[in-house]
Amino acid sequence: MSPPSPLKVGVLLCSATQLMDVAPLDMLGMLDKHWVQTAQLPEHLASKALDIEYCFINETGESPHPMTGGFKLAVTHSIETCPPLDILLTGGPAPSYRPSEPIQRFIQEQYEHLRALLTVCTGYIPALYSGTLDGKTATAPRGLLPMLKEEKPDVKWVEKRWVRDGKVWSSGAVANGMELMAGFMWEEFEEQRGLTEVMMGMADFAKRGQAY
Prior knowledge:
The protein has 212 residues and is of the alpha/beta class. The protein has helices at 19-22, 24-28, 33-39, 43-46, 101-111, 124-129, 145-151, 176-188, 193-202, and strands at 7-12, 52-58, 65-66, 72-73, 77-78, 87-90, 116-119, 137-138, 156-157, 162-165, 168-171.
């Protein structure tokens, strides 16, 4: 299936989100036509670049949003003003975070028409509490899996760097988010595989597979 143009990609920011959890978006951005133009690639590759529209979302729309490491991220939309998305990435809040009912509804409503939901590290939390992981195979940070298997048995938890179940993609720890995104790009954008391979080579990205 060819990607829509523009491809609407959203990042949901909950609590003080870990910066590295949303960094995989930059890997996807290597397929963005604006970035590809700077790489001066042959036309047969450059012509496959994606037209991407980015949305950075939090509950209220208040900007900037606090991130770990003292970083702050400009917010473009609240959950009320965010348009329908094609891809939604949820980065990791603190493990004690529990999403509000409006956040849960936002995920549920977006999920109906999403092409993909990607959770990185503790980014599984808002997805889990919204019910979108029920009946799905998913992963999370390895140290939390025993607890999750006991307390949240409606999800089939597996110990992998990343896993896909339909349009739900989830990763283990924070560093596995990059591997998740690489797998997502390769599997989801078949027409862009040549471009993806070149860009991964330029970034010196090493594939490690899904198994630890």
